[in-house]
């Protein structure tokens, strides 16, 4: 089969591109039918449908025809019934009979029976081309093709309209026509003997039938019927048969160029029928679907067609035929833009004839049938839009009957939406999707397609959403290719009805083009719209115009990185955007503006050349949409106002950084010309800054949709950070203006458009809302307005929405770290107060409202307060602020406040009170405060209580003292038992019996007391060293018991020395001898009474025998008295002879004590040794140990559990893995190899890395390094092999083997790791080793596992490790300024003293983690050669750490490579050792692991900004959205990129931890570990046994 001019479309059959490369090809295509004549005149003048009976009078012909036809039909029926042969055996008989049948087909409809018989006969004869029957005459059966050609000519009489016929007769005629069309379809599809002449005759017949029915303008009479009503009945059917048989002919006998040209020319006369456009696009879409499948393969997103439509293309039709037919059918109706011009459509002979015969119609273009042109034009452009989407790779499902031809009855019905109805499957956000059809990727079965109910075009069945848009196909053709095909149509349609500015009007060509690239390239790109619309702008055709604008926006948004687009296309597109973005009357077109904004989300972030020229017009359109709460213009019914605002927010996020990036760069005016000199000041990007910021502020105030609000919050954070960083970089000293927020009632931000919520801050009249802020041009003023606006909106409208409130908290946390000059202290104080008010409100909500989500908000608010207090420690010097914060902390811990303010609307109800009286009714400001001992602890939840405790501890420990002297990498003390024992007198290791005594206080604090003084203690005073392990860390203290002040002149020994006794004095004065009496002398003068004689003398009571014994007793007494007198005399004489003073009796001072039981003294002096503290609690149900418990330090397993406790960090830790992807890279090895050389990466990439964090040496780093095997410990000096750091790398230095990037604040640690090929090799080897199975390695306590490097500082008693580069008041190193190791300037001897001393995991787990560490080879487990001390496998420290969240940052040189990024292959190098830590703990309870993988793609635009795309690769089902400040599609500046990426990564992980039920905060995990240790190792002593053990000495 030959195809005329097949080389014209050779480029269309290539696999990946449709680009027309040369002008010669275009010109040759333009002359496709130039050398061929049209057959239009031949068809119209054909006399083949005339019979000889037409030469006789009508009555004679009617009589002959009725008689003959009735007989022929009767004979045919009887012959068919009895299988008898036809009586017409001679060819002459057949021809004569056909003359009669030809006349009979043209009879009036009143002779319906005769016409029916004629049709019946001809249908039977036509079927001889497929399966001839015996009843058919033999000449016809023998050679059917010539007779079939004649029959087709005769059947044309049936399709001629009969004027002045009733409805019933017209319907009967239509039924006969349908029967003929069915027979013709069957012959065309089933017959295999049709000759080319028969095919041409068949096609000419169909063209003539359509022309006779469709050419005349349809006109309704008073009864609503058309004078040619047969066209209404047959329009769709006759067109569908024409297009269907034409397609069949393309497969069996490709039509000649003359026929194609005739088809194109005759379509011009039918364009006032909607069915033509509908049928045209049905064929286009079917062929386009086959073309895409042929060109791009089955994996390319398909255009899913209804099954009935798909059958139009024969299954055996080859790709060559499909390609030729597709290109010709595409241009069969010539230029569809002509449908927007009634004068062009009505410029046909039939319209002119009708105008001449109708006196009421002066102009053919005013015919009433042309009122449907707006709908026809819309459907034409909608069909083109569908094809554009198909080539862009947007999956589509045409389940809605796009080609419905039901005419709307009213003008309102005509105004159908510019986007199709329907639902779509959920897909990834921020991908460009068509506004003209419903998309759905899932394939449908045949049954589903058959039962799909088509919907009317003017009846929308659903709204489309940005969230359901699907991405472009990665292998899509270039923009130039699609514009070569459809550009001319779309460009002209986008300006339909628009009056151009004089500077834009081009000379009108005399010869108009008729198709996109068929006539001339120059004409297709010229703008001759004035010829169409000389009277000015007209929105009659705005729906079709909106469809064209939307398609163009999608084409240009599909621009690939470094893709070239012809300048002429750029210029025409920007011109269309200029007119489409008009916002003033009468130029505004609501549907066009809606379509442009909805489909242009990616317009400003795709590196389009010169697209910034549209920035002022886009900004003006955004102001029209975002500054209103409802649409003030006509919108598409298919796009909701919320979705339109969402698209506008995306555009706004694309222009936020432009003013500070381009600054004074002038923006060219589209209307200006080189010949006109304007006096206006040139417009610069910097001049748009205040408008953009003000629009962002107003949009955030008016927005009610949660998703849009979160995006705007991310944009607000970007603006504040960018402005503050810009001022800091430029060293600008900006004096703040007058604070416009002096009162708690801010006039502007608190105006809320929502009426559903009302709060304590929602009482400001909305009339003041339009007052713009006065100092938004400085970071100081913008910071104040941003915090005030967010806090007010949070309290007024966002407090009940989980995601919006979390986003607000993330924004406030980010603002806390923004440095503004001078600091806005007043606004900082108010912000903390607002957050506290938010916590009070949430805690005060009724009990039914309390849920996990509510408590999540409270926990996030406490975390935000903590960050504000640490970053602005001066707030706690304010008494009011401190009181307010502590009140809220008390509320979080106990559930109530000790003293509630009278005006505070508290509604917290005591759970134990049955009368349900609120706390506010019991506590008033005049009432005395309630002490904690008298209150019942009823916190909102344990999570809230834990969060409040964390804030309280942070206030006491960290506020004003962060970062600590050892740097931000560790909040712990850098000392432990092993370090202290090296410097203790008589030191011994725990293996020989620990000299530490361990006590547990209140079941939450483990105190290890070392009674031995350290080596640098000189005074012989009671000294105790305490290692205090609590829920918030480990702290080391050394204390001395002193009774005198420490001075430099007087030592402790001076106060304890013997001062000597004074000499005796001989002159003692007068000595008096006094006889001592028991009673005074006056007693003897008193007379005795009977009572005095009541006791008789002893002698009167004894007998003789007793008297003898009494006498002996008296003798004994007398002798003893005499002896005592002698001894006393001798002693007196001896004293007189001895010197004075007597050394034996002299009182002397005690000797100084050198041995103390300082542990007992410490516990006693601090009040821990009371009897009450040793008693078991009265409530034995809870089995709570006493307030003071002694631990069994003789159990060596205790030290393993203490090591595990020390290994649980006090902060959350996250890891960021960074990858670099060069153009078209798809394998993991190629991607990892990029960072090995500086020359393989862009310079901005290295700058970005260093803005994420500062470099640290993993062997000397105390914090998180990205893997548990090398984190929270340092190596011994002799274990650190001196290796030279790699130089000239592209980031592989930070792969975790030698160095990593690190950032930390008071609540989070972030390690930034850049995996390298070495990382991949070690991970792969480690995985294979683990899978093969091997014996458990012995514990290594020397190589890389001992956290105790050398020494303590020898100066003074203060035991704390400090950095020479940091002070307690100095902030941590700034990532932007840090280019070397933090400790690089210290000496080798001091470097080891500056790192924390922590303890590793248990042996088996440590060995496994070291093998998985990027810094350790697989065989580096080793064994403990120095000490064979076994390690106890205690509780895993990583239990309840929350979900396994992976954050990947991917730098793309080519943005489209995001679709082929090998995430699954690269996840193996992102192991942190914490993935399976929790599974061993809960292995008995099977539970699906919570795993989330988030990818932040970064692409450097050519203008110096950066495009961000956030992708959720693997995500657990959650109700939370992705965190801010980065938003998918945002364009950020170079200054803020690192900061925003870091904040987003931390916020994503924080959100996942907040929602996860498998997460506990670090201090809770430490508290549980302490309780576990107490239960294992507590000594169950009575009080006596405890005191006895306390007095016993410990090993020295």
Explain how this protein is built.
- The chain has 1596 residues and is mainly α.
- Strands 9-10-11-8-12-13-14-15 form an eight-stranded mixed sheet.
- Strand 5 (1023-1030) and strand 6 (1033-1040) form a beta hairpin.
- It is elongated and about 195 Å long.
- The relative contact order is 0.05.
- Residues 1-30, 221-228, 400-461, 508-536, 732-773, 902-925, 1334-1438 and 1478-1488 have low confidence and may be disordered.
Q: Any key phrases for this structure?
A:
eight-stranded mixed β-sheet, mainly alpha, 1596 residues, elongated, 6% strand, five-stranded antiparallel β-sheet, disordered N terminus
Instruction: Kindly report how far apart the N and C termini lie.
Output: 106 Å
Number of helices: 51
Mean pLDDT level: 76
The global form is: elongated
Rg over CA atoms: 49 Å
Q: Can you count the beta strands? A: 15
Topology, pairings included?
Elements: H1 23-30, H2 40-44, H3 58-82, H4 91-105, H5 112-126, H6 138-142, H7 144-155, H8 167-190, H9 196-214, H10 230-252, H11 257-267, H12 274-296, E1 303-304, H13 307-310, H14 319-330, H15 342-345, H16 349-357, H17 373-392, E2 396-397, H18 411-414, H19 446-451, H20 479-494, H21 521-524, H22 529-532, H23 542-557, H24 567-580, H25 590-599, H26 615-626, H27 641-655, H28 658-662, H29 689-702, H30 706-729, H31 779-798, H32 802-816, H33 825-843, H34 852-871, H35 879-894, H36 942-957, H37 977-981, E3 996-1001, E4 1005-1010, E5 1023-1030, E6 1033-1040, H38 1052-1056, H39 1104-1137, H40 1158-1165, H41 1171-1174, E7 1188-1190, H42 1197-1207, E8 1212-1221, H43 1228-1233, H44 1243-1252, E9 1254-1257, E10 1299-1304, E11 1308-1313, H45 1317-1332, H46 1388-1391, H47 1403-1412, E12 1444-1452, H48 1463-1466, E13 1491-1500, E14 1506-1514, E15 1531-1532, H49 1537-1555, H50 1562-1577, H51 1583-1591
Parallel strand pairs: 1-2, 8-11, 8-12, 12-13
Antiparallel strand pairs: 3-4, 3-7, 4-5, 5-6, 9-10, 10-11, 13-14, 14-15
